[in-house]
Design a protein that fits this description.
single chain; about 250 residues; alpha/beta; Rossmann fold; 2 domains; 8 helices; 12 strands; elongated; binds NADP nicotinamide-adenine-dinucleotide phosphate
Length: about 250
């Protein structure tokens, strides 16, 4: 398998390249710098030409939204399946991803850790079993993370809102701000080199339930993205989810 790795000098890009090398997966690194270590390397502007000459089985993207949607256009032009781990897309960028998925297979996930898929299922179950309980979400990431709350936090909040009557997201609290029914408190921490922690707390009826996931290394995300790339190769155009990869085992 040959995988294109964009943002190759970034935190995730480097981790994906390292893991791909360990797995014997060939890589084409796409980077604005020359530090990337891969079988082949190119500048982002040259990606369309490189993909036309040297077809790849999938692209794995952990960059920034504006760059991610540009890389996706190169995938559409060359029929390359795309795995997108970048987070923080706006509505217009999401619409571009939707359009691309009419032409090529696209798998976008805010979190490629398998444990987060289990967390999502457990949070849905807890929210369903504990109606009326207060719900608070806390997430912690390294001090270089750009978007807040994290894409994973947003996915968890969507799941809670689908299952409970709590739909009002309150981001932090300050001053005189008593809690009201229907609130979901959202708390974001950015510090040090934390790879990613998400905790959902349910409290009521004189009890507290907390469900927590902690990524101990970026390798968990890289592994999930490479598994997704292998799974996506050869599929029809459309949008796929990481839960489909996990369920397929
Ligand atoms: N889905 C998941 O499981 C998961 C897990 C972790 C992180 N993420 C997300 O993945 C993304 C990247 O995270 P990270 O920690 O690896 O960030 P990072 O260390 O800042 O790396 C991002 C890389 O993107 C490339 N880039 C940035 N701006 C660009 C531009 N304008 N044009 C082209 N390339 C550009 C750069 O690589 P070059 O200099 O090499 O071009 C940069 O090093 C974030 O959105 C983060 O939230 C998702």
């Amino acid at each position: 398998m040959t995988v294109v790795v964009t943002g190759a000098s970034g935190r995730m890009g480097r981790t994906v390249l390292d893991l791909a090398a360990e797995r014997g997966v060939k890589t084409i690194a796409v980077s604005r710098s020359e530090t990337a270590d891969a079988d082949t390397a190119c500048h982002p502007e040259d990606l369309p030409a490189v993909l036309s000459e040297q077809p790849a089985d999938a692209l794995v993207d952990f960059t920034v939204p504006a760059a991610s949607v540009e890389f996706l256009e190169a995938c559409v032009d060359t029929g390359t399946p795309a795995v997108i781990g970048t987070t923080g897309f706006d509505e217009a960028e999401l619409a571009r991803i939707d359009r691309a998925s009419e032409r090529i297979p696209v798998l976008r996930a805010a979190n490629f850790a398998r444990g987060v898929q289990a967390l999502l299922a457990l949070v849905r179950e807890a929210a369903d079993s504990l109606p009326g309980y207060d719900v608070e979400l806390t997430e912690t990431h390294h001090n270089g993370k750009r978007d807040a709350p994290s894409g994973t936090a947003t996915t968890l909040l969507d799941a809670i809102e689908e299952t409970t009557d709590a739909t009002e997201r309150v981001h932090g609290r300050e001053g005189r701000q008593p809690r009201s029914d229907g609130e979901i408190g959202v708390h974001v921490r950015r510090a040090g080199s934390v790879h990613g922690e998400h905790e959902v707390l349910f409290a009521g009826n004189d009890e507290v339930l907390t469900l927590t996931h902690r990524a101990e290394s970026r390798r968990v995300f890289a592994a999930g993205a490479l598994d997704a790339a292998a799974w996506l190769h050869g599929r029809d155009a459309g949008q796929y989810t990481f839960s489909e990869v996990v369920e397929d085992r």
